[in-house]
């Protein structure tokens, strides 16, 4: 874990910020930074002027000002006790290397502004392709740097990666055919008329990421056509139901454009049954995309990569390097099984992106792009497969440990088990747990709902108060567990990616949550009262 601790930094005007930032990379809840939570509205006071300053100012003055206004109130995403989101700590070497990237200011849209960065990016994409699809050495030798092929596309994140993948799926489905010159030229309306479909749809789990909604909107098929299929008790999409949905759509002459499998859902970290989804996609002849934005990095662990089995059957895969690959934000990738896929969205222009050129911009949604691939390259080279093996395994095993720890607490309830390193849970006083079990046994959903409503209030209180205390942070979300008859409940959500998060920190977080809960006067007393009324039936 030494790469997550920072070597000595020199002392000079700007370098103080840099040094503090470096310290942040190993968690800056220490004394170096004021960690007192300031309400958003008072921070906004520092950013009220709408006029661009008339007079220039000294860099050092600006840096001093920002130290107070910006750095001091930034969120401690790198802290080992910040375990609420997918944004986590960075290795120390990322900061100096990113200066090199910014300084060189290469534009990946075209070779003329990125002579060496373009091959580097193609190599990064090639490595990721190999990680997923494991093709032969000669495959990569022929195709990785080929002007007429793309093994994938680098982009700003999972959202753009998902859009790119489904854009390709749409254009391949509605490709040129005889007189019809393709959707890219003639638009959705005429494309549907030509192919004789009434509409298009995308099938995905109800836990699919909201970026798919944006995608459907942008691609012109509409958000309503993202068909959300319910999940089973393990939060994995129900493939039998999905098949039934597909048949109903077919009966209505609605063509399923793509099936999207999620490998690591945002709320529960669950992995859909990818081989079954691939089989269904083949059966109904549609594109199979896997959204592994968060979970895809698990492929770097030889011990756990089997959890994602079936991913190699996907036509396209989204992976965010800025999630579990410890790269700073702005590093998303979509990888294509078929190296000629991207020709479906190819665009050419005269002054750049000429036909036959190696300009990456001809096959990407984005135009001008920074050399972020360099930081993925750096992490892969410096951390290596061996390093990632340790990091990924460590996260998964820590999550399993934390799940066991939660299960051992009589007043906490593990709501979803960690398949990878994401889990959800909540605080439930012992008496309430017992009473809820009685309610579940009786199938008394109304009583259960009364408990859940009060518990939702309590869970939100714990989460907000803990964040305000500023020692640690977990997030919260809403899910619909089977054992509570799919009632929508609020849960605490933890993502364990920071290698410096220790077991002691996890114990402390639980202890703090218990303490906060026990102090609550709004939800706890009515909860206990309701529980005692269940225990003594005459009170019901
Ligand atoms: C994070 C995430 C996305 C979106 O990625 P961004 O990088 O935030 O654009 C999409 N899908 C899943 C499953 C994710 O976890």
From TrEMBL:
<dbReference type="GO" id="GO:0019752">
    <property type="term" value="P:carboxylic acid metabolic process"/>
</dbReference>
<dbReference type="InterPro" id="IPR015424">
    <property type="entry name" value="PyrdxlP-dep_Trfase"/>
</dbReference>
<dbReference type="GO" id="GO:0030170">
    <property type="term" value="F:pyridoxal phosphate binding"/>
</dbReference>
<protein>
    <submittedName>
        <fullName>Glutamate decarboxylase</fullName>
    </submittedName>
</protein>
<dbReference type="InterPro" id="IPR015422">
    <property type="entry name" value="PyrdxlP-dep_Trfase_small"/>
</dbReference>
<comment type="similarity">
    <text>Belongs to the group II decarboxylase family.</text>
</comment>
<dbReference type="GO" id="GO:0005737">
    <property type="term" value="C:cytoplasm"/>
</dbReference>
<keyword id="KW-0663">Pyridoxal phosphate</keyword>
<dbReference type="GO" id="GO:0016831">
    <property type="term" value="F:carboxy-lyase activity"/>
</dbReference>
<keyword id="KW-0456">Lyase</keyword>
<dbReference type="Pfam" id="PF00282">
    <property type="entry name" value="Pyridoxal_deC"/>
</dbReference>
<dbReference type="InterPro" id="IPR002129">
    <property type="entry name" value="PyrdxlP-dep_de-COase"/>
</dbReference>
<dbReference type="InterPro" id="IPR022517">
    <property type="entry name" value="Asp_decarboxylase_pyridox"/>
</dbReference>
<dbReference type="InterPro" id="IPR015421">
    <property type="entry name" value="PyrdxlP-dep_Trfase_major"/>
</dbReference>
<feature type="modified residue" description="N6-(pyridoxal phosphate)lysine">
    <location>
        <position position="323"/>
    </location>
</feature>
<keyword id="KW-0210">Decarboxylase</keyword>
């Amino acid at each position: 874990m030494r790469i997550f601790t920072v070597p000595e930094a020199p002392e000079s005007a700007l370098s103080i910020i840099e040094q503090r930032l470096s310290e942040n990379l190993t968690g800056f809840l220490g004394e170096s930074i004021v960690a007192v939570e300031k309400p958003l509205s008072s921070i906004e006071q520092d950013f009220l002027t709408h006029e661009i300053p008339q007079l220039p100012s000294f860099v050092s003055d600006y840096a001093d000002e920002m130290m107070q206004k910006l750095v001091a109130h930034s969120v401690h995403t790198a802290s080992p006790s910040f375990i609420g989101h997918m944004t986590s700590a960075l290795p120390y070497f990322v900061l100096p290397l990113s200066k090199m990237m910014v300084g060189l200011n290469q534009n990946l849209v075209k070779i003329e502004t990125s002579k060496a960065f373009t091959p580097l990016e193609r190599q990064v994409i090639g490595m990721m392709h190999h990680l997923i699809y494991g093709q032969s050495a000669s495959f990569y030798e022929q195709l990785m740097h080929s002007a007429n092929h793309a093994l994938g596309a680098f982009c700003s994140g999972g959202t753009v990666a998902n859009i790119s993948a489904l854009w390709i799926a749409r254009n391949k489905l509605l490709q040129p055919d005889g007189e019809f010159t393709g959707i890219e030229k003639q638009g959705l309306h005429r494309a549907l008329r030509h192919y004789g479909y009434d509409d298009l749809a995308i099938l995905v789990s109800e836990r699919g990421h909201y970026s798919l909604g944006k995608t459907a909107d942008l691609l012109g098929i509409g958000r309503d056509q993202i068909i959300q299929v319910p999940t089973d008790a393990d939060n994995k999409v129900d493939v039998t139901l999905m098949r039934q949905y597909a048949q109903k759509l077919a009966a209505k002459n609605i063509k399923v454009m793509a099936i999207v499998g999620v490998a690591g859902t945002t709320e529960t970290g669950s992995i859909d049954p990818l081989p079954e989804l691939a089989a269904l996609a083949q059966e109904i002849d549609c594109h199979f995309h896997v959204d592994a934005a968060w979970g895809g990095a698990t492929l770097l662990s030889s011990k756990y990569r089997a959890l994602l089995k079936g991913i190699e059957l996907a036509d396209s895969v989204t992976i965010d390097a800025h999630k579990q690959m410890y790269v700073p934000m702005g590093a998303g990738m979509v990888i294509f099984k078929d190296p000629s896929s991207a020709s479906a969205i190819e665009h050419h222009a005269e002054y750049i992106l000429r036909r036959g050129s190696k300009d990456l911009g001809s096959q990407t949604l984005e135009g001008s792009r920074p050399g972020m691939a360099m930081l993925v390259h750096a992490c892969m080279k410096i951390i290596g497969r061996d390093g990632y093996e340790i990091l990924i395994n460590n996260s998964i095993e820590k999550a399993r440990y934390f799940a066991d720890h939660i299960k051992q607490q009589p007043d906490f309830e593990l709501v979803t088990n960690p398949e990878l390193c994401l889990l959800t849970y909540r605080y439930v006083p012992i008496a309430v747990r017992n009473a809820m079990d009685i309610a579940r046994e009786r199938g008394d959903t109304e009583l259960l709902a009364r408990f859940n409503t009060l518990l939702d209030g309590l869970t939100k209180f714990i989460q907000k108060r803990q964040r305000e205390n500023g020692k640690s942070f977990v997030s919260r979300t809403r899910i619909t567990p089977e054992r509570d008859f799919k009632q929508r409940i609020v849960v605490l959500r933890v993502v364990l990616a920071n290698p410096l998060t220790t077991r002691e920190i996890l114990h402390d977080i639980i202890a703090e949550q218990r303490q906060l809960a026990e102090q609550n006067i709004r939800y706890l007393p009515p909860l206990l009262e309701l529980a005692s009324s269940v225990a003594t039936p005459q009170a019901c």
